[in-house]
Design brief:
This protein has two domains: 7-100, Aminotransferase class 4, branched-chain amino acid transferase, N-terminal domain (D-amino Acid Aminotransferase, Chain A, domain 1, 2-Layer Sandwich); 108-257, Alpha-Beta Barrel (D-amino Acid Aminotransferase, Chain A, domain 2). It has seven helices and twelve strands. The protein has helices at residues 7-10, 29-42, 51-64, 133-144, 188-195, 211-216, 246-269; strands spanning 14-22, 25-26, 70-78, 93-100, 108-118, 149-154, 159-162, 166-171, 174-177, 203-206, 219-224, 228-235. The strands form two sheets. The chain has an eight-stranded mixed beta sheet with strand order 7-6-5-12-11-8-9-10. A four-stranded antiparallel beta sheet has the order 2-1-3-4. It is globular and about 60 Å long. The mean pLDDT is 92.
């Protein structure tokens, strides 16, 4: 039972990440660790100091749950100080971790549109914090309105991201995703496509995107840890062209990168 003073959960004073487990390997654990450490420092949340020990603890959970191909949610919450610290709190922070089956997201996605939903100028823009009520409210409204997700615009009217995914637009061989200065999360899949995986004939780069750009794009897709790459077939108020094969080719490159990562980490564990 949680005490009344579990302020990390009461106030949403925590950070989290969702890690894909492929064949018993925590994919891109190093990048998840670095992002969580960065966000914890920004949010003034104590954080574990030993990544190897942290990964080992998560792997014990994965093995105990027989979750060798799953989603792993990792949360770090602060326990002390602030407004609602309860009596008897001795630990500065707690780590909460759980595994779940990977969702079947289907083959395409329909996106609504929400203006003024990201504050790009905020120093906390792009942090993955436990206070997710706004995202959940927009996500629920999207489903009520017949959409699967929503495109979130920032205060300048630029495309930022979705509630739980980054967004990309293809213009011929040029594939663009919003820069972090647009207020988006530095997603792990986003990073791999920008810096690690590549597909012949396509160049992936950061650039400011607007809704007008989306209407001109040959293809739009979203990315996340649990979705990998997912093509967009509709955006609210925009005629999506659905031309070309950027999403398919980059998904193949991403899948190849996963295979290589998993194989190399399995060899290292032997």
């Amino acid at each position: 039972m949680l005490s009344p003073g579990q302020l990390g959960l009461l106030a949403g004073w925590g950070i989290f990440s969702t890690i894909r487990v492929y064949d018993g390997v925590l994919f891109a654990f190093e990048r998840h660790w670095e992002r969580m450490k960065h966000d914890a420092k920004l949010m003034r949340i104590p954080f574990p100091s030993d990544p190897a020990r942290f990964e080992e603890s998560l792997m014990r959970l994965v093995e105990a749950n027989k979750a060798l191909n799953s989603s792993l949610r990792v949360v770090v919450v602060r326990n002390r100080h602030g407004f609602w610290e309860g009596p008897g709190q001795t630990r500065e922070f707690d780590v909460i971790a759980l595994t779940a089956d990977v969702n079947d997201w289907g083959r395409t996605v329909r996106l609504g549109l929400v203006p003024n939903a990201r504050h790009a100028a905020s120093p906390f823009a792009g942090t993955k914090i436990l206070s997710w009520a706004y995202n959940l409210a927009w996500y629920e409204k999207a489903h009520a309105d017949g959409f699967d997700e929503v495109v979130l615009l920032n205060e300048r009217g630029e495309v930022s991201e979705c509630t739980s995914a980054n967004i990309f637009a293809a213009f011929g061989g040029r594939v663009v995703t919003p820069p972090l200065s647009s207020g988006c999360l530095p997603g792990i899949t986003r990073h791999v496509l920008l810096h690690e995986a590549s597909a012949p004939g396509f160049k992936v780069e950061e650039a400011v995107l607007t809704t007008s750009d989306l209407s001109r794009a040959d293809q739009i897709f979203i990315t996340s840890t649990t979705r990998e790459l997912l093509a967009v077939d509709h955006v609210q108020g925009i005629d999506v062209r659905n031309q070309g094969d950027a999403c398919q080719k980059l998904q193949k490159a991403f899948s190849d990168y996963i295979d290589h990562y998993v194989a190399s980490h399995k060899r290292a564990a032997v």
